[in-house]
Records
---
Amino acid sequence: MNAPHDWPAALAPRWRQDTLQHGLGPAFHTALPGQALPDVHWVARSDALAAELGLAGWLAGDEALAVLSGNAAPSHGTPLATVYSGHQFGVWAGQLGDGRALLLGEIDSDAGPMEIQIKGGGLTPYSRMGDGRAVLRSSIREFLCSEAMHHLGIPTTRALAVIGSPAPVRRETVETAAVVTRVAPSFLRFGHFEHFTHTAQDPLALQRLVNAVIERYFPDCTDAAHPVLAWLEVVARRTARLMADWQAVGFCHGVMNTDNMSILGLTIDYGPFGFLDAFDPGHVCNHSDHQGRYAYARQPSIGFWNLHALAHALAPLVEDPQALRDAIEPYKDEYAQAIQQRLRAKLGLRESRDGDTELIDTLLRQMAAERTDYTIAMRRLCDFVSAPGAPNTTARDLFIDRAAFDVWATRYRERLAAEASVDTERQIRMRAVNPKYILRNHLAEQAIRTAREGDFAPTQRLLQVLEHPFDEQPGQDEYAALPPDWAQHLEISCSS
Ligand code: AMP
Ligand code: MG
């Protein structure tokens, strides 16, 4: 048991232990302290998030290191591990839960109340076969990608810090332990709701959870004729927009199990994720996903599958099962509209016109056939000059079949002319939605390799670049380059 820790007076009034989860009863969680790790040290911190939370000063000190590593228990109450269940790879997996995550409390920020959770803080009653720990490798990946996604404008849990320890942790090889501090309005997953229907079979607990969630996070739904259905539809639409965000930027989550689906429509649980390098609709980023269930192109339909599981879990609260199916049905239109809108924006098209889908698909088909680098191609198209005869070599040179590109470019030029597009103005709009800098696997890998040797500066430098993904950053072109040959052989496994 860790010694209780006194919170600094300046922080105490702002840091509360009355999260939605704390307010629910013991059926929903277990209160317990973290398990101490030896010789903890800072690996990385997000100054931007610290400032948003008003924690910049505190985060510089030893007390933050003790609390956020799980080594010191807050004196205002004990952290919580919450219970959930879920479907993993399409199969019911039964009870899961926070096997290595602890909810410390809540803090006010400009974006509203934020929960603070640490991941890797030790065993919980939900650890099952696991050790309650996270390794440095996966913690750096989660930290960097959470912040990268936020700065790309994609809803996500955030990451405040990574703390390292020399404590050995066994994965495929022996690695070292780390703890990530995660920040989000809520860490509730679809699986929290599935738990009370299928595992605990406790409709009263389900009702309490749903009521609390609607009241706190979806207050607009309370006035609806059927608040549960209204809320489910909002979740469906948010999930659809999140899937469109992922597809448009080329993000593959890798483990879209229902226990990894946020009820707020946030990207959550960064494990074997990856951004597309070459455009490949069948790309599977998770080395352990042998069936390709979570391949890039399948993510939108998996999002809908997961909503079915959520709707099914709500059956005890809704008499008519058809009403539940109807509530998630808008997912399809919402996704279709959202992805078209994002892809049009990526090509700088303001209006929606007949033939746009075909224009976009033709480009993506050529990219898929040639395995063109998705991010670089889209970014180079930002420089497209629409004057007849303009060579547009920066984009054109990326393609193998230049004649096919030329045919497409002529159509694109005509399409731009149809909405009287002004090049300079369009180019600015396109650069604001086509990132130059994304967290490619090899960039994360380079940061991890140096961090393992005790040099954390490259991780912090990479974070700084990823905080401005749409800006031209002089001197940082190496972060925007094609992946090196060695990166083709990087295998990202589920183990974290
Ligand atoms: P994931 O596939 O990472 O979303 O994890 C699925 C479930 O396994 C969740 O309940 C996690 O809390 C749990 N889990 C994953 N890794 C560990 C670990 N090292 N120790 C304890 N529980 C874990
Ligand atoms: Mg998970």
Note: The first helix runs from residue 20 to 23.
---
Amino acid sequence: EELDLNEVRGCTKCVLCENRTQTVFGEGDAEAKIMFIGEGPGQREDESGRPFVGRAGALLEKEIAAMGLQRSQVYIANAVKCRPPNNRTPAPTEVAACSPFLQRQIQIIRPTVIITLGGPAAKLLLDIREGITRARGKWFTYDGLMPEGPQIPVMPTFHPAYLLRSYTAENRRRVWSDLQKVMERVG
Ligand code: SF4
């Protein structure tokens, strides 16, 4: 809350501050074992100040429920805290400006596992080149807290908005398989 109130809400470190209605810090259990990270706020998130609302958020909540959890028991955040115009992918300079906030969120929460949602979030967090179709379902490691902090296992999966657009049995099976791997790891 201090990070949000004192640093993020008034942040003007990159041009994304110019068009935002408000920042979208993230929400959930500060001691969550599972942290979901998306790319950036969309229109509904910009209006509400909350991450993953609307149809994609509802599907994410279904996924969380399928894992036997409630939304309030996990933590949900984005790589950038302000909405990119027309929902474009955040520029590298914008991600670089905002990443210290995400890093500190991860540092505070210290989740057992991070789940990245969609290709851009995986690339931003893990600095990988492969697309989400290849990367999903495989374990990666977040090293951003090293050397003082632990390495954190990361499972990339499809973004719920993509899943809504391509709501095939195969894609649903893939996401469920990714979430099951996380459940096994978290215990
Ligand atoms: Fe600041 Fe991040 Fe918003 Fe850029 S996206 S203005 S760095 S809070």
Note: The beta strands are 27-28, 34-38, 75-78, 113-117, 140-142, 152-157.
